[in-house]
């Protein structure tokens, strides 16, 4: 029943085959969506080649550089989408970053620049991309972002990323209210800990994963594939009544008290 045939999707945040965004892109492709995939450009073109080789089997219509700290690149990305597609239906936001030294030790040691960097890339970027997407999502659509339990509970070493994810979740609600009259739904998935390039920067990530495996009702953590399936659902007509929500895909860990 989950059919995204004819839908056009922009997927951000793929870094390698462990990325949650990679799991989402695969599920969208399986459901029939046409893809535009962005990558983080660098001077040596490492991500362009790595991500390009990875996503080649998905046959993306557009493959574009996009650093969300650069407004000109954001505008160029959406100009390319407008030129090729005219309009599109799905925006997947899988972007988060904090300096590694902000993800260990005392939260109060967070630097001013580190705070601004984490909030800018991990939270503000959703708002900025949604602003650019709004005039192109003329037939309504779905925006999905990725968050984590550290937004509402204290997670050792998660530190400033917890603040960034809290801001991200608040942004989901405000964007859902703004874009709802246009038929655009905005939701977040709070995924359990997964070993990714981004999460590897968090001190004690393997201990976090082991704890979830021992405590969650399903006695395991989740996979990129499972998060991808939830994202595809949120982008489909099956989720037409859902907006402004945070869905926990964490093997049930969020419900546990002890």
Structural class: alpha/beta
Note the run of SSEs as H and E.
Answer: EHEHEHEHEHEHHE
**Quaternary organization:** single chain
CATH architecture: 3-Layer(aba) Sandwich
- Shape descriptor reads globular
The CATH topology is given as: Rossmann fold
**Total of helices:** 7
Low-confidence stretches: none
Proportion of residues in extended strands? 5-15%
Got a strand count?
7
Largest sheet: 7 strands, parallel
pLDDT averaged over residues: 95
**Helical content band:** 25-40%
Count of discrete structural domains: 1
Distance between the termini: 38 Å
Which CATH C-level class is it?
Alpha Beta
Keywords: Fatty acid biosynthesis, Fatty acid metabolism, Lipid biosynthesis, Lipid metabolism, NAD, Oxidoreductase
InterPro entries: Enoyl-ACP_Rdtase_NADH, NAD(P)-bd_dom_sf, SDR_fam
Pathway: Lipid metabolism; fatty acid biosynthesis
GO biological process, one term: fatty acid biosynthetic process
